[in-house]
Design brief:
Largest sheet: 7 strands, parallel
Shape: globular
Distance between the termini: 52 Å
CATH superfamily: NAD(P)-binding Rossmann-like Domain
Number of helices: 13
Order of helices and strands: EHEHHEHEHHEEEHEEHEHEEHHHH
Number of strands: 12
Structural class: alpha/beta
Strand order of the largest sheet: 3-2-1-4-5-8-11
CATH class: Alpha Beta
Bound molecules: sulfoquinovose-uridine-C1,5'-diphosphate
Strand content: 15-25%
Oligomer: single chain
Length: 393
């Protein structure tokens, strides 16, 4: 199948291109290197060194025996996107090319506006370009579990039966996001659902939990095929930050009470899921939703898992809760459904320990790169728009 990945230079996009090519698909990618620039703006760098795109493409051809068709450009530029679709004629588009950080979007008005303009317009441009050039193409859109927020009820997979005053209809489950970034994904979801309803497009909206891990088998032992690992306050997720903190001897920092829960999944499981979605397209007009996560932990349990694995490498680190710079529920119900992928044959690895060992091996080898950008780890972006470093509690 011809699969186009937007955000092919990113954390998920790059390994996905390898994974899909190894499964026999013809892959193209779009990127404008924004992720490298955002992390630089935060005063940080990927702990694992990332090859330049030219070197990535060379290694790709050597290992996978095919070229990755690369288009450099901005996803909000309609003519650019249209031309890329015309030249590649994708049968599936995996849409990953968005600004993915909640704290970055909460920085100030400029970052909030940028996040929503970039994310919502990029997806809208894609819908129009698909309609014009490849109306039968399947859009695999990366959503996030954070769109739902933490309501005090179980969360269905996308749609549910709503009954009110004796009448019933199938409706999209309400969203209650907690950052301008997560809100941008909510807007996308509504736009994509409407495009399916009005234009008969087919889409899979994947509501992913927090993805972690540094390696998939398709990377082999070629450094040029590795993907990024961020640990700064914006682009490093809690699990990445805990691992990086352990490697340079800093205490691990659950925010606030540390009882806020999230769903997690390994990088290799994320690849499997995106691959399954691509290879099993929905019918025309269908807007399909997958909730995807494997294990649910609260952030203190997560820190304890990381602490346990770190001790195996002689790293004895403390867990010191930190004042929460975010506004979020710290004690809440969390029980989302996640059956649709399992029905398609998804076999999750559910082995956080093995994945974390790989992460530690990679990070210990690049400890100096984390040490060099240590300052970027300390959070000062607050959900009320102010900036002040958090204290350990
Ligand atoms: N947290 C800590 N300590 C830290 C950093 C974060 O306790 O040092 C807490 C946060 O307060 C939050 C939780 O960990 O309660 C998760 O935060 P995160 O930074 O790991 O992840 P989040 O902001 O939710 O965003 C990440 C990705 C995003 C994706 C999302 C999936 O950056 O792209 O959409 O995970 S989900 O969380 O399911 O919405």
């Amino acid at each position: 199948m011809r699969v186009l990945i937007t955000g092919v230079d990113g954390y998920l996009g790059w390994p996905l291109s390898l994974y899909l090519a190894a499964r026999g698909h013809e892959v193209a990618g779009i990127d404008d290197y924004s992720r490298r620039a955002w992390v630089g703006e935060m005063g940080s760098q990927s702990a694992i060194p990332i090859a330049k795109m030219a070197d990535r493409l060379l290694a790709y051809r050597e290992h996978l025996g095919q070229n990755l068709r690369f288009y450099r450009g901005d996803l909000t530029d309609y003519n650019f996107v249209l031309n890329a679709y015309k030249s590649f004629q994708p049968e599936a588009i995996v849409f990953l090319g968005q600004m993915p950080s909640a704290p970055y979007s909460m920085l100030d008005v400029h970052h909030a506006v940028y996040t929503q303009t970039n994310n919502v317009m990029g997806a809208l441009v894609t819908l129009f370009a698909m309609k014009e050039v490849v109306p039968d193409c399947h859009l695999v859109k990366l959503g996030t579990m954070g769109e739902y927020g933490t309501p005090d009820v179980d969360i269905p997979e996308g749609f549910f039966e709503l009954e009110y005053r004796g009448r019933k209809d199938t409706m999209m489950f309400p969203r209650k996001a907690g950052s301008w970034y997560h809100q941008s994904k909510v807007h996308d979801t509504h736009n994509v659902e409407m495009a399916c309803r009005l234009w008969g497009m087919r889409s899979t909206d994947i509501m992913q939990g927090v993805v972690y891990g540094t390696y998939i088998d398709e990377m082999g032992d070629d450094e040029r095929l590795r993907t990024r690992f961020d640990f700064d306050q914006c682009f490093g997720t809690a699990i990445n930050r805990f691992c990086a903190q352990a490697v340079i001897g800093l205490p691990l920092t659950p925010y606030g009470k540390g009882t806020q829960k999230r769903g997690f999944l390994a990088l290799r499981d994320s690849m499997q899921c995106l691959g399954l979605a691509v290879e099993n397209p929905p019918k025309a007009g269908e807007c399909r939703v997958f909730n995807q996560f494997e294990e649910v932990y609260n952030v203190t349990e997560l820190a304890e898992r990381v602490q346990g694995v770190a001790s195996g490498y002689g790293l004895d680190v403390a867990i010191n809760p930190m004042e929460n710079p975010r506004m979020e529920s710290e004690s809440h119900h969390y029980n989302p459904d996640h059956q649709h992928l399992l029905d398609l044959g998804y076999e999750p690895t559910r082995d956080m320990e093995t994945e974390l060992k790989q992460v530690f091996q990679d990070l210990i080898a690049h400890k100096d790169r984390i040490e060099a950008r240590k300052e970027a780890q300390f959070p000062d972006i607050r959900w009320d728009g102010s900036r002040r470093k958090s204290d350990y509690l």
